Structures are given as structure tokens and as C-alpha cells.
Predict the structure.
Amino acid sequence: MIRHIVLFAFQDDAPVSALCAAFAALPQQIALIRRFEAGTSISTEQLEQGYTHAFLLQFDQAEDLAAYLIHPAHLAFVEQVKPALQQVLVFDLAVDG
């Protein structure tokens, strides 16, 4: 199983709700996504370093993640969100079952 973790720090004038909705729509367009979760930090440690929104996508295997990364729907979303971001962090993690 592969977990694809994405953190966004948005520009001040970004249409955050619309962009989050566009990201959340990807599982309906890309069947390889097994699970999608999204939210904002509730941490009391305040170590977010400017990141405000987190997304967790789960895939069965590394090949599925690779196919997702080049899927036209994902590439279109990336082009849509890029101008609205101050920074982005992506972390992929292989986990057992």
C-alpha cells in the first residue's frame, strides 16, 4: 500500500474552497485512488511552517501512484492549483496492509 501525502500553503488570495473541491473530485475521475482524506491542521504544536491543508491519498501499489501522477485529470489539477500555492510538500510512504 502506498500513501501519498500532500501539504499545501496557499497564496492569500487563492480560491481555497474551489481548489480543495477540485482535489477531492479526483477519486471520481481516477479509479486507482483507493482512499482520499483532506483537512486542516488541528495541531497545538504550531509546527506547520505555513502549510494549511493536508491531503492523504492511498494506492494499492507504487505502479498505481505512478499512473496517477501522469493521469490527465491529475495533471490538469496540478496546473490549476500551482498558481495559488506559496509552497507544496509531497511525501510518499510505503506501508504494510
